[in-house]
Design a protein that fits this description.
Chain lengths: 299, 299, 299, 299
Amino acid sequence: MSATRAGFIGLGKMGRPMALNIHKAGFPLTVANRSQAVVADLASHGATAAATPAEVAAHADLICLCLPMPAHVEEVVLGPNGVIEGIRPGAIVVDFSTIGPSTCRLVAERLKAKGAQYIDAPVSGGTTGAVAGTLTVMVGGDQDAYDRALPLLQSVGRKIVHAGPVGAGAVVKLMNQLLVAINLAGAAEAMVLGTKAGVDPTLLYETIASATGNSFQMARNFPDLILKGKFDPMFSVNLLHKDVALAVDVGREQHVRLLLSALVQQIFAEARDAGHGDEDIAAVIRPLEKLAGTEVRAR
Amino acid sequence: MSATRAGFIGLGKMGRPMALNIHKAGFPLTVANRSQAVVADLASHGATAAATPAEVAAHADLICLCLPMPAHVEEVVLGPNGVIEGIRPGAIVVDFSTIGPSTCRLVAERLKAKGAQYIDAPVSGGTTGAVAGTLTVMVGGDQDAYDRALPLLQSVGRKIVHAGPVGAGAVVKLMNQLLVAINLAGAAEAMVLGTKAGVDPTLLYETIASATGNSFQMARNFPDLILKGKFDPMFSVNLLHKDVALAVDVGREQHVRLLLSALVQQIFAEARDAGHGDEDIAAVIRPLEKLAGTEVRAR
Amino acid sequence: MSATRAGFIGLGKMGRPMALNIHKAGFPLTVANRSQAVVADLASHGATAAATPAEVAAHADLICLCLPMPAHVEEVVLGPNGVIEGIRPGAIVVDFSTIGPSTCRLVAERLKAKGAQYIDAPVSGGTTGAVAGTLTVMVGGDQDAYDRALPLLQSVGRKIVHAGPVGAGAVVKLMNQLLVAINLAGAAEAMVLGTKAGVDPTLLYETIASATGNSFQMARNFPDLILKGKFDPMFSVNLLHKDVALAVDVGREQHVRLLLSALVQQIFAEARDAGHGDEDIAAVIRPLEKLAGTEVRAR
Amino acid sequence: MSATRAGFIGLGKMGRPMALNIHKAGFPLTVANRSQAVVADLASHGATAAATPAEVAAHADLICLCLPMPAHVEEVVLGPNGVIEGIRPGAIVVDFSTIGPSTCRLVAERLKAKGAQYIDAPVSGGTTGAVAGTLTVMVGGDQDAYDRALPLLQSVGRKIVHAGPVGAGAVVKLMNQLLVAINLAGAAEAMVLGTKAGVDPTLLYETIASATGNSFQMARNFPDLILKGKFDPMFSVNLLHKDVALAVDVGREQHVRLLLSALVQQIFAEARDAGHGDEDIAAVIRPLEKLAGTEVRAR
């Protein structure tokens, strides 16, 4: 059993299996969560339940977060009963949440005043990767903090990338998400048009997938989801829209004009506003199908 | 040696090696081209030189075209001394050019009046694939014409897809090109932003390339071209801009709203107007780099 | 009565009142139209009915056209029984249609071979201006042709602008239409957002209309149409979409990157595809209202 | 002389003349500003100089703000030595700054806890209107606060609009600014294209300005600025970019898809990144001119 004690706040679809993998790897684990059911569940696996983020922080060397929005991270770390109230000098906040680099730097600055450190460590790989412990982890933070957190990171991920100082992990993750959105929305547009123009959607998909227009998102979204008319959420339109919005915010902060990115943000907003926010990102194609009067389904 | 006689008009970067492969496969070959040097060259390999498209048509059962723009196809087939003046009943025009489906249908209609047929057969795979005979060929046309042309198509390509009636090959090719443009321009945007935000470009590329934001165009354009600052044309900005414009025209004909496609057409226009029209498509990143004041180069 | 004889082909919503004004101004008038009812109607007012465009051309010094699309102009002038078959040396085609400058130049070139001239003379001012004879006419063509056509132009319009050589009138008209589309679609976006954010639509309209965000299209579309929920066609979404598409084509020909223009073309395509193509251009706001779940109506 | 005492914080290009007009109208005036020179100047006109926002607040019934960015408002009101530290129950913060409605509501909420009120009162009309006291003022806030502030508002503006509760004034102002940006950038695009296509820019401007494509921004930007090649800042690209970004943020908060707005934000970012951030908003045309290789100047 590791001497390093871990904490985990945010036991959602991603956080719960990640926390379990950390626990299985031998890290003593204290957890907290807004909903208490999952806390009890983790406790039944041997974790210690805490009432507040501050209490988690008081009992951990590495305090992991996995929260949906920047505002949640700010609240859980800096708010009342937040991590910052319990954290001890030398501890490290390991933030698996996908948030913007400016929030990362703000939180890191505040923790530094307590003698603690912060690394942003957003992940890629979905719930499947979270369960299997095969996530890609993109890390921003000081080298020594990275080194100390590495064994824990390796318990949740297979590929761990140290991208640079605080915020760099967030930037890499957000740039990846931008391309998820662009490649997917682009494929949706081309597949709807090709189908409306009379080509069989499966043939169209297979030809492009074997040619120069291929992308990871083609394979993820068409054969098993769109072509079958399945839009059950693995990763929702709302969550990707949030990521894209954060990426576009990076462009605003960095003074970089973003054309496709700004537009794709609105395309996911369209899918959300048309009622598909809680469906899988594949559903971004649905407003396009409706407008074109054609469906991209296997025949 | 095949009894089927072939003709080839348009002996450019793609057409010349394709014509050679057809000849090597045993098809007696008659050729014509605007520039005569390459005609003489082909003749030295055993092809028969013709003075006009009409003359090529008079000596061939399968008349291949590989021309840059729809206007060239219209001129070579329907113009003075065009294919239509020499073509014989039962012959087939095999059009490897990337043009729009409406031009395909127009030309097919006119040839039908002469008792001849037309198949659109645009290719993917670049000059490398043209030389190696490993192109992907996307075919639109009647089944019997497709069947008769298949042996010739197999002499230039490895994957031959019969996509549907006349124009369907063009649609598949154009949809692929749309995604080439969107995936590449999207990657350019994200890579410029991530680099400006302080992440090492090579690390950024490698992380995204192994994650869910990956695309064929990432691998094609970053390691060997953009990260090394090389923009020598394999496939030029001008040609991809043309393809995207044709794809957007399909959207206009089919009454399909196209957001990312319409924008990416203008992004390639920007690269062209900034002086990069004859450079490789990777150069679409250069106006973005200039505006952001950062270059996405390996360090 | 003028010695100059006029012809008029295309007696639609705009053409009919324009032809009547030309007739009232004293020009002997020969007319033709696809639908014969309106020809009979004009004949009852004293015009001479002709069976074909060629026949109109044979009896006129100034042959006016007012047709919906470039393809109609090509067909009526260059097609079978077209103007070009009847036109005499020295005659002038006065084209009130809104078409692209490249079509203007093509037609002018062909007429020149017959010793005839062409001026593009698209109009602005709607059916109200057409009836009142108060249109703005934007003219492209040689000075002498312009001078000879001027009295006729003055019978249909109040402001006649000689914009330059053949095609220049078309360019001015299309640039105006581009701004009609952008200013209107922009206003629609801002009014929907402001209304969704809780501001009374009438107050919002009146404040912007008296401030720096005002445009001609604000006044045209909000008080009498959108705020009252009226979308009866005065000028339809389909027609403006056509104009914008032609303007974007000018950008392609001229190698000018167009961002807002390319996007607004798709926004009008969206309105058309959502079923509002035959409604007034004000209906461009309807898909935005539906998506936002709010209506910009006076309360 | 009014019994109501005024305070003013933020004596920039707009704030200084507005403060002078309030003073001239008879309101006893206490002022503060980051730069002290202008404070001394106002003092020489009879105003009382204060060292901090808190001190201004302690001496005023109506505390006016005119600050560039939301962060400045938050700092001046809520930060150390901020207005909130000195404000007394019953006082009203009158915020002339152009900021987002969410910041307005946040600040209002915090002031309410002190028994004070907040109205957002952004203005339109530029420095000319600020000097002349003829601004348009768009007000959000409770009716009683509006009523009490009205005499002061009338000393700076001619048209005072009560748009609704706190934040409504901000929404109206931002929607207006969105249309300033869209109408101007649209006009820039059309004028560059028309000029490149060969039409004289002055003729093109004058024709559109008298037709249906006209907008307030046409008249503001072309005759005196762009056509003369003058880009001296009256209202800068940077400031309008900020306003548009805030308007697009309203879209994000309200769940309204924004296509033209999102794009025009990037078009102003382009002008900024190309080095025109401190020039007048008319300079948004300059990157377009450069790319097209043509200038829209009177000949």
